[in-house]
Amino acid sequence: MARLENIEPDESSHPSHGEQPQQFPEKQSSWEPPLQSQGVVQLPFQAVQAGLQMMLPDQMNGNGTATVTNPVVGAPWSTGLFDCQQDPHNAFVTALLPCITFGQIAEVLDSGDMECPLAGYIYLAMMPALCSHWLIGSKYRRKLRRRFNLVEAPFPDVVSHIFCSWCALAQEFRELHRRGLDPSLGWNGILDQMDQTGNPPPRQSMTRS
Predict the structure, then answer these.
(1) How would residue 201 be classed by pLDDT, with cut points 50, 70 and 90?
(2) How far apart are CA 166 and CA 94, in angstroms?
(3) Which domain holds residue 178?
(4) CB contact at 8 A, 123 and 115
(5) DSSP state of 18
(6) Is 38 within the bounds of a domain?
(7) pLDDT value of residue 104
(8) Which has the higher per-residue pLDDT, 43 or 113?
(9) CA-CA distance, 69 to 59, in Å (whole number)?
(10) How confident is the model at residue 200 (pLDDT cuts 50, 70, 90)?
């Protein structure tokens, strides 16, 4: 067996007891991935402000901030589109003869210029003609909304009368009734009722048909 000789360490390669080991500063990397690789494009503030002014010229404030307005315009309906149970009698009439409900609504919105029988007949005649009754139905729904500044919800007027014409007519009937314009009375009946109470119809002319 070979004998191991004692090998003394080289003191020149190790610091003495009184010396501190030499410390090297840690290398700090200042490299960061470019913003483009992260899906972010950094633009100067002036460019962003100029772009916003081009898109929203009337909504920019003096300090460079933009004011975003609510795209939904109008007051809410007094009842929902599918709240037919709130007026069961009208819901039953509308389900069987929607032309009657439409005629009553049209007479009120036209201030008696178009009477209920004529409006109902037009609606009835348009039903078998490629189901085109939604054209005149959506027209008067839009007229009702503009008269009382109602929001176009939950669906556009055309969509409501294409897929939910019975519910749309019932909702319009209830809206007029809750505003003091009962379509079942007819335009002249509404005027007589207002004459007794001394209150004119809201936003309606006082001419009799």
Answers:
(1) low
(2) 6
(3) 84-197
(4) no
(5) T
(6) no
(7) 97
(8) 113
(9) 8
(10) low
- Distance, CA of 66 to CA of 130 (rounded, Å): 47
In a domain, 92, yes or no: yes
Task: Give the separation between CA 6 and CA 78, rounded to whole angstroms.
Answer: 102
CB burial of 79-108 (b: ≥16 within 10 Å; e: otherwise) equals bebeebeebeebbebbeeebbbbbbbbbbb
Q: What angle do CA 125, 128, 131 make, to 5 degrees?
A: 105
Assigned domain for 63 exists:
no
Decide: residue 185, CB within 10 A, 0-12 exposed, 13-18 middle, 19+ buried. Answer: middle
Whole-angstrom distance, CA of residue 14 vs CA of residue 11: 5
Residue 177 lies in a domain: yes
pTM attached to this predicted model: 0.63
- Mean pLDDT confidence for 76-92: 96
Domain count, the chain: 1
Confidence band of 58 (pLDDT split at 50, 70, 90): very low
Task: Tell me: pLDDT of 106 over 90.
Answer: yes
Instruction: Name the band, by pLDDT with cuts 50, 70 and 90, for residue 202.
Output: low
Nearest Cα to 168, choosing from 134, 193, 197? 134
Residue 112: Cβ within 10 Å count: 19
